[in-house]
User: What shape does this take?
Amino acid sequence: MTNARQAGVAGSQVQPAAKRARQRRSAWRTLRRNPIAMAALVGFVLLILAVILAPLITPIPPNAHDYDHLLEPPTWAHPFGTDDLGRDILSRVLWGGRESLRVAVMAIAVAISGGTVVGLVSGYFGGWVDALIMRIVDVLLAFPSILLLLSIVAALGPNLGTVLIALGVSAIPGFSRLVRGSVLAAKNYEYVTAARVLGASDAYIMFTQILPNIMPPLIIYATVGLGNAILITAGLSYIGLGAQPPSPEWGAMLNAGRTHLRDAWWISVFPGLAIFLAVLFVNLLSDGLRDALDPKLRQ
Amino acid sequence: MKPRSIGLLSALVVLSLLAAACGPTPTPQVVEKEVTRVVPEKVVETVIVAGTPQVVEKVITATPEPTAGPVMGGTFIYVLPGEPDSLDPHKTARTDAYNVMRYLHCSLLVQDPEGNYVPYLAESWEMSEDGLTWTFHLRKGVTFHDGTPLTAQDVAWTYTRAKDPANPGAAGASLAAVDSIEATDDSTVVMHLPQPFFPLLTSLSDPAFFGILSQKAVEAAGDDYGRQPVGCGPYKFKEWVTGEKIVLERNPDFNWGPPYAHQGPWYFDQIEYRIIPETTTQVVSMEAGEVDFGAVAPSDEETIRQTGLFTLYPIVYPGTGPHLQFNNSKPPLDDVRVRQALNMAIDRDVLVKVVMQGQATAQYGPLSASTIGYWPGVEYVGYKYNLDKARALMQEAGYTVNAAGMLEKDGQPLKFTLKTMAGEETWLKIAEILQEQFKALGVEVQLEQQEAGALVADEISGNYEMGMMQVGWTDADILYQMYHSSMIGALNLGQVKDPKLDEILTKTRTTLDPKLRQQWVDDAQRYITEQALMAPLLSMVSYWAVNNRVEGELFSTKIYQLFLDDAYLVK
Assistant: This one.
């Protein structure tokens, strides 16, 4: 995988900026011709819009109890039904999406920033710096990431903030590895040498010359990671280590619906469907992006 | 709570009224069971009907005993919702451990289905005039499961061990009232008390936490005793597979028994405790008829009833009922006005309706109505839902309403963290509703779910502000254990230190005249309620489901116990 991705960078020997723009246009064309990826993109954008526009879609607050409408199946007034405290499931799914998606996106942002800095430094400077950083990364990679996650959450206490940090931090080693690999290939290209000859600083070379050229694999890896992060956020909340009641986070909703699986399917089915769709869209989009950004597969 | 003894006629009236008024709650039904055991004249089964606190008595005429009597054999499968921490009665206070230990160990006395104290290990006993010396004469020829004879020395050693503050078992709090226990000969035990202690017999009739241990076995096993217990009860320990099951097998040498049951070994070959923490899984295993006993929440009652496989016994757990524990030592909960206001912000009728589908009653005092010594006066003294009065009290306590409609003092918004037990869905639902109701008063509450052991530890050590809790105990002596200042670090979860209350509670233990003692118990309930040392919530009705393949079991509505002494399995 990594090798194939680096091949995309290998062609860019001169004028990287112009070439990158060309690549971007071509990648977008490829992506647009991929109906599944486009459907996934549209679906994901719609999902994000629905979550952002939640207050406009349903006027019912997500935590409003209505003791006269307990466990009601879907109706016009409550399209997704109500739960055992009379809360509107539609409203909770939409507001819960804010929590779930925000945590996942922010965790990936943490992982990208951390992983990029660590990987760039490690790959660019090489030598003992590289050896030291990579051994630490090896140690972290040796743990199953779920174990790392659980220990961080256990140490910091169960809430969504902790989950965000835990998810982000535990994904840093993977991103570092990826970035370092790409940097190792990129740092020997002529434009890098040229920049160095012209007297550019290390930081300038790392962030303005190398980084833009290693973006494609990073983007693909990030979308894969995003789907994963959504799942893990929900999973941790489901077992009580993430969002605390009454948060409508999707995993927490699934957990709350567990006791009513047999008599009120709508409590768990709709948040479950939301998780499913979000992860499906992200993964299909990620597949499409890989096809579009990978020059070998593009043929 | 209304009087509990009601004639048949009024019972029928109540039933018909209910049928008319039940509305959306599940249709009330009467527990009916074909009784196929020898009965002298008639059997009176006491039944609590959905949506009412009323106890209804239904007379079922005796059916003649058909043919064969009890048969030996089979495995009785018991749903255990949690894994015990230890089966050493001096190292645990957990209900799950209690439910295993009660068949494993034996006690000096037991309570019969009518609630009387009857001989068990002790054939007779007497109390000195002043109530300070108790003498127990033991049955001879009883052996422990390892074959060693049970002597008075073992009894003295057991209770001395239970008293040791290093042992955190449930018995310690009661035995603290006993100075010393000595064996004057092989079959005589004498207890010396510094002052009279009313609930002594109640305690000594608990075969689990007050069971007699074999000194030899405990010392041989050391720290492992909790996982390889040796008792003297009708069943002996066979195996414990962590996270899966605990199996007990019949003790063939148990050739005795309490006076209300047959003498000799019990009928089941084994009792297998299946550890099933998940409510849904418990219900599924009951529906499949795979288990013989399990507790059923009101929400699942209808499902289980429809299987036709189980007899459901309605039960109100004696003790505290699920309540909101306050840490009275931490500001602002050390201010009685704040505690009262919080109590008045709770609309218990909503809890009854939403959480328990009407199968509960609002509780206004520290004890549930089925506890021996319950004082009905709390229903008048207790704080009813009154948001205006609650707001006025908060204002008096120095709180003002800020722009967001929330209460604050010196610019600090009033905020609490409410701890509840992970996996305990009923408590969580109560907590979520309390969160909304306190918000209406202007108090922000955050919920935190904790694993059972961590929650109990935090509440014992006072590392909390508010927490859900329920403590089971048959007698009002639980008030002493939970509110006397000497019990801080044990069951005084509210960290209550009140000299006036201490005095009342001491009287509840040292007064031996039952009538006078009851007055002190009433006083204690009044005082605790008025001081709002916690927020009482519900007396809930739940159900015990017994598989219909079990015959001969006896459910006592006097002391809410299921007696399996004469129970057996039919194929």
Notes: Chain B touches chain A at residues 279-280, 283, 299, 303, 350, 353-354, 422-423, 425, 428-429, 431-433, 435-436, 446-449 (CB under 8 Å). Residues 6 and 56 of chain B are 7 Å apart (CA to CA). Residues 75-292+549-569 of chain B form a domain with the D-Maltodextrin-Binding Protein; domain 2 fold (CATH 3.40.190.10). Chain B has three domains: 1-67, 75-292+549-569, 323-541.
